[in-house]
């Protein structure tokens, strides 16, 4: 295994693939370089002299500006690099995206075909509270159902607990309604009880308007204040749904029916080298098969947004992408918060120095496909292909937002590790083999072989695709085995 990698021939830094001690001699482009500092795994080393105020180049793009002169062999990180990002920018529509030449493959998976033609990869029974006040009642109903009924034919029974649905105004109130409406119609749910209180802001009658159309055989509503014993009535409803779902069977569907969310968290210096490019390759492959991927985490597009804008399918999609980026910056300013307060301490420990560097690694999850649409928070996918989604970078908020679009699964790359899971299957992909081996109870797939030298990108993409189809067919992920499943609804405004 090599000690380092230069990602792009134009880069003036290399990335340590393993910890390198001070005074180690490495050879780069036929020149010997003495490493001036102890370099942690995933961190950067200068391979040419970088003057003060000169750009640091990685991935072929600027990831920041030198705060001081940096000599060959020196550690390049937060102590000597600052962000080069500024306020809102003026963008021009200059499309450069090209259709990808990826062959069609007749791949299929076994899923649950719903009445509207969507296909679920799980057949779960959900209780969705309209307001946090009835979370406890929903749990009682689930507990009694499990105690009194054979539920072995169900993949799971969930309460999508949350704390909202009342005391909210404006955009927050609408976000909650859109999120819950989207969950109610999600194809991974074969049966849904929507449990209301009765006096909340999120009135069931209003929520139904947001939902639009739904399968009345599989989605039922109950307002607790209108019945004497809501647990008893709710139990009857979910027992009926449980019996209906007993006849549901997996059937063969083309991979074009897959809608997959792309997310990263706890990134490290390997994220942009292994796991994120792997997801990019998979995304391009799935889009070429007629499927859909959704890329989010808008603050982690800052500094790399023009790469996505150049691939906008139309000028309208380009304008929506500009609004996505500048609108999120305006959201930060409205809250009197710094726009570029990123990366996190964990990111920095892993070797990521600036937001530009994090973003250039992050957007690689979207591959090279044309951007077909841009979605607002809570919007449903309308256009196959690569979509962009309005959401912050917070792991659970963003993963939930991807689920609300209709994604049946979220792919989550990480170099630091995390045990969490959203309300849809959330696959953890390790950026390095050390993490995969150390946290085998959290991680589902290892992309570290790309730097270990044990596998090529083409081989790993095929292996990854096979594994993802296994998951779509019903194999459970680590967080599903531990039953770590949650939702988080985006909130920014006043609570009454």
Explain the overall architecture:
Helix content is 29%, strand content 20%. It is α/β, with parallel strands linked by helices and 496 residues long. It folds into three domains: 4-82, Archaeosine Trna-guanine Transglycosylase, Chain: A, domain 4, CATH 2.30.130; 124-247, Rossmann fold (3-Layer(aba) Sandwich); 255-481. The relative contact order is 0.14. The mean pLDDT is 95.
Question: How are the secondary structure elements laid out?
Answer:
Elements lengths: L3 E2 L7 E4 L8 E4 L2 E4 L9 E3 L8 E4 L2 E6 L8 E2 L4 E2 L25 E6 L5 E2 L3 E6 L5 H14 L7 E4 L10 H15 L4 E8 L7 H8 L7 E5 L6 H16 L5 E4 L4 E6 L10 H14 L3 E4 L9 H5 L5 H20 L10 H5 L5 H8 L8 E5 L9 E5 L5 H10 L4 E6 L11 E5 L2 H6 L6 E2 L2 H4 L4 H16 L5 H4 L15
Parallel strand pairs: 12-13, 12-14, 14-15, 17-18, 17-21, 18-20, 19-20, 21-22, 22-23
Antiparallel strand pairs: 1-2, 2-5, 3-4, 5-8, 6-7, 7-9, 10-11, 10-16
Q: Can you summarize this structure?
A:
The chain has 496 residues and is α/β, with parallel strands linked by helices. The protein has helices at 135-148, 170-184, 204-211, 230-245, 275-288, 305-309, 315-334, 345-349, 355-362, 395-404, 433-438, 449-452, 457-472, 478-481; strands at residues 4-5, 13-16, 25-28, 31-34, 44-46, 55-58, 61-66, 75-76, 81-82, 108-113, 119-120, 124-129, 156-159, 189-196, 219-223, 251-254, 259-264, 292-295, 371-375, 385-389, 409-414, 426-430, 445-446.
């Amino acid at each position: 295994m090599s000690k380092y990698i230069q990602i792009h021939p134009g880069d003036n830094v290399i990335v340590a693939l393993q910890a390198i001690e001070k005074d180690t001699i490495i050879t780069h482009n036929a020149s010997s370089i003495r490493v001036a500092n102890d370099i942690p795994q995933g961190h950067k080393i200068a391979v040419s002299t970088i003057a003060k105020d000169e750009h640091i180049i990685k991935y072929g793009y600027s990831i920041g500006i030198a705060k001081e002169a940096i000599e060959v062999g020196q550690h390049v990180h937060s102590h000597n690099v600052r962000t080069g990002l500024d306020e809102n920018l003026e963008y021009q529509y200059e499309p450069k995206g090209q259709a990808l030449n990826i062959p069609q493959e007749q791949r299929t998976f076994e899923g649950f075909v719903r009445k509207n033609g969507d296909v679920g990869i799980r057949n779960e029974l959900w209780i969705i509270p309209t307001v946090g006040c009835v979370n406890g009642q929903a749990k009682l109903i689930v507990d009694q159902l499990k105690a009194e009924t054979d539920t072995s034919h169900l993949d799971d029974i969930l309460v999508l607990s949350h704390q909202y649905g009342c005391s909210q105004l404006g955009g927050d109130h609408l976000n909650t309604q859109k999120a819950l409406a989207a969950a109610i119609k999600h194809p991974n749910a074969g049966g849904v009880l929507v449990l209301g209180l009765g006096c909340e802001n999120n009135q069931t009658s209003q929520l139904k308007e947001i939902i639009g159309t739904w399968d009345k055989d599989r989605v039922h509503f109950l307002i607790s204040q209108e019945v004497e014993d809501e647990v008893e009535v709710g139990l009857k409803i979910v027992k009926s749904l449980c019996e209906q779902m007993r006849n549901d069977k997996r059937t063969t569907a083309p991979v074009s029916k897959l809608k997959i969310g792309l997310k990263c968290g706890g990134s490290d210096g390997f994220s942009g080298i292994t796991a994120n490019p792997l997801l990019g390759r998979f995304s391009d492959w799935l889009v070429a098969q007629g499927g859909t991927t959704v890329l989010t985490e808008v603050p982690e597009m800052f500094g790399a947004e023009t790469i996505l804008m150049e691939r906008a399918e139309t000028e309208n999609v380009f304008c929506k992408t500009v609004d996505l980026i500048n609108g999120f910056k305006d959201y930060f300013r409205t809250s009197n918060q710094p726009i570029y307060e990123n990366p996190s301490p964990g990111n920095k420990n892993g070797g990521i120095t600036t937001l530009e560097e994090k973003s250039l690694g992050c957007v690689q999850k979207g591959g090279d496909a044309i951007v077909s649409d841009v979605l607002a928070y809570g919007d449903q996918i309308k256009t196959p292909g690569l979509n962009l989604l309005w959401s912050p970078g917070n792991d659970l908020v963003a993963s939930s937002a991807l689920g609300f679009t209709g994604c049946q699964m979220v792919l989550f790359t990480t170099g630091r590790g995390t045990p969490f899971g959203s309300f849809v299957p959330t696959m953890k992909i390790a950026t390095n083999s050390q993490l995969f081996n150390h946290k085998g109870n959290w991680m589902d797939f290892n992309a570290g072989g790309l730097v270990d030298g044990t596998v090529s990108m083409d081989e790993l993409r095929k292996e990854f695709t096979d594994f993802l189809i296994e998951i779509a067919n019903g194999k459970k992920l680590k967080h599903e085995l531990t039953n770590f499943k949650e939702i988080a609804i985006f909130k920014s405004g006043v609570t009454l």
